[in-house]
Write a structure and sequence with these properties.
Layout: E1 6-9, H1 21-32, E2 39-42, H2 44-56, H3 67-85, E3 89-93, H4 103-113, E4 116-121, H5 129-141, E5 144-147, H6 151-158, E6 173-175, E7 193-198, H7 204-214, E8 220-222, H8 234-242, E9 244-249, H9 261-269, E10 272-276, H10 279-284, E11 291-293, H11 296-308, H12 310-327, H13 330-341
Parallel strand pairs: 1-2, 1-3, 3-4, 4-5, 5-6, 7-8, 7-9, 9-10, 10-11
Helix pairs in contact: 1-13, 2-3, 3-4, 4-5, 9-12
Length: 343
């Protein structure tokens, strides 16, 4: 294989790393593109969690106070791996600040071994100074940083608007939505569910579920990671999306407008998307044959119309999927990354 030797630093938050977005939406699509050379994986968050627990030694203290010592141990481990593997590209999937790799460790290793660093930021909270500071530090040492959920945030970063006034190296930040693994998120050939609302029971989704129930709408709830949710494996979750006539997607927090990853998942599965109207989704979905809604009453009306018009609905879903997989697929995604870092 003649492509770049690539090391994936994978997070492991609530599931095993192979069930996390860093594996399903980075590792698998990039490896599946056929554009990489030899590949290795380190589930760094598992190692960081183990080291932090050892340093704490049952004292139940803050993880943050142990991060410098834990970071040094991880640096030694990563140094040994990189000395032997000599990666051309390191793909770093960020996690919670208290279990993330210190950016300065990655910067030091990059100086020693000369690899290109691609960092994936999954989420954001501009009211959290620890998170804002961590993103500043990882952007400073990276060759490419992907923010997959907000073009508006990228523009604020590039203009160095508060809370980003002290950011540097901001030109490496790109809007680059990740790719759901095509081998999982694909059409199923049948529709078992009429209307599905997927994801954790939190924020705006709770309000919408309550409103639809009060309106007498028959819908299916799928997945989630908070108390009371019915956890689904990735395979079950993807199959549920694909077997739904309509999938409703919502925002989570009103102060954090995002292009949710579920948008791409539904498009890839070939189901019809009813997306909550917001600037990020409107820009990404411009020209796609999907439908948008602004409030529960409008959503109920659109659910009824699209259920009553199956031929129009299925044609729209097919057209939306065809455009999505043409424009957003493992090859185009991986090529964009390699071109951006000069590999």
């Amino acid at each position: 294989m003649s492509g770049p030797r690539t090391l994936f630093l994978q997070h492991e938050q609530r599931r095993y790393y192979w069930e996390e977005p860093g594996h399903l939406e980075l590792y698998l699509p990039m490896v599946g593109s056929g554009l990489l050379g030899e590949v290795r994986t380190i589930p760094y968050q598992r190692d960081m969690r183990w080291i932090l627990n050892e340093l704490d030694n049952g004292a139940n203290s803050s993880k943050l106070q142990h991060l410098p010592a834990a970071g040094e141990r991880l640096r030694l481990m990563l140094d040994a791996q990189m000395r032997e593997f000599r990666p051309d590209l390191v793909v770093y999937s960020l996690t919670w600040v208290q279990e993330a790799l210190p950016p300065e460790v990655l910067g030091n290793l990059k100086d020693v071994y000369g690899f290109k660093l691609f960092s994936q930021i999954w989420d954001y909270d501009e009211s959290n100074p620890l998170l804002v500071d961590y993103d500043r530090r990882i952007i400073a040492v990276s060759d490419l940083v992907s923010i997959a959920d907000s073009r508006a945030r990228i523009e604020r970063i590039r203009r160095r608007e508060p809370p980003y006034a002290n950011y540097t190296n901001v030109d490496v930040v790109r809007f680059l939505p990740t790719i759901p693994e095509p081998g999982l998120f694909k059409p199923a050939g049948r529709r078992r569910f009429g209307v599905t609302i997927a994801g954790s029971s939190e924020g705006r989704r709770v309000e919408v579920v309550r409103a639809l129930a009060e309106a007498g709408v028959d819908f299916h709830r799928a997945g989630g990671l908070v108390a009371g949710d019915a956890f689904l494996s990735t395979e079950e979750y993807a199959r549920t999306l694909a077997e739904s006539k309509i999938v409703i997607n919502t925002q989570t927090a009103p102060e954090r407008v995002q292009l949710k990853g579920r948008v791409a998942q539904v498009l890839s599965c070939g189901s019809f998307l009813l997306e909550e109207r917001n600037p990020e989704s409107e820009q990404f979905l411009d020209g796609y044959s999907v439908d948008l809604w602004s409030n529960p009453a409008e959503l109920v009306d659109k659910i009824q119309w699209w259920l009553a018009h199956p031929a129009e609905r299925e044609l729209a879903a097919d057209l939306a999927r065809a455009r999505y997989v043409r424009e957003h697929n493992p090859v185009t995604y991986t090529r964009t990354i390699l071109d951006a870092v000069g590999l």
